[in-house]
């Protein structure tokens, strides 16, 4: 079974348990080979409340999916979430293992003020 199929299986298993609500939205992360995407999502209403992507103008020059950029994305998503009065979230690692980029993004979001 290919790595991407294994990641999808892990992600489906996680999503059975992790759901975003209005009180505690879900912070979903995705890593492609080159870009990082983070979204704060209210699953009950099906709305994205805040998002950060490395294709944005401010982050485009550094477009690499590495630990340093993951820290920037984590800090930026926390700032955007806090601006919309979102302090408590549920972390959805998207089927990725919790180390490296995923851990760096989560720690940066925690340090910037999000609680999970």
CATH level 1 name:
Alpha Beta
Q: Assembly state here? A: single chain
Per CATH, what is the topology? Nucleotidyltransferase, domain 5
- Number of self-contained structural domains: 1
Number of helices: 3
How many strand elements? 4
Largest sheet data: 4 strands, mixed
Shape: globular
What number is the mean pLDDT?
93
What is the succession of H and E elements? HEEEHEH
Distance between the termini: 32 Å
**What is the structural class?**
alpha+beta
CATH architecture: 2-Layer Sandwich
Uncertain ranges: none
What fraction, in percent, of the residue positions are helical?
Answer: 25-40%
Percent strand: 15-25%
What are its keywords?
single chain; 116 residues; alpha+beta; Nucleotidyltransferase, domain 5; four-stranded mixed beta sheet; 35% helix; globular
Question: Can you describe this structure?
Answer:
This protein has 116 residues and is of the alpha+beta class. The chain has one domain: Nucleotidyltransferase, domain 5, CATH 3.30.420. Helices cover 35% and strands 20% of the residues. The chain contains three helices and four strands, in the order αβββαβα. A four-stranded mixed sheet has the order 3-2-1-4. A hairpin with a 4-residue loop joins β2 and β3. α2 runs parallel beside α3. The chain starts with a helix and ends in a 5-residue tail after the last helix. The relative contact order is 0.20. The model has no long low-confidence stretch (mean pLDDT 93).
């Amino acid at each position: 079974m290919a790595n991407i199929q294994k990641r999808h299986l892990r992600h489906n298993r996680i999503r059975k348990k992790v759901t975003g609500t209005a009180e505690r939205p879900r912070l979903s992360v995705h890593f492609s080979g080159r870009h990082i995407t983070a979204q704060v999502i209210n699953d009950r209403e099906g709305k994205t409340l805040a998002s950060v992507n490395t294709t944005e103008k401010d982050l485009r020059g550094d477009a690499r999916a590495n630990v340093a950029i993951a820290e920037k994305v984590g800090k930026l998503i926390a700032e955007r979430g806090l601006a919309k009065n979102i302090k408590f979230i549920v972390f959805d690692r998207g089927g990725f293992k919790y180390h490296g980029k995923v851990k760096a993004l989560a720690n940066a979001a925690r340090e910037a003020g999000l609680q999970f």
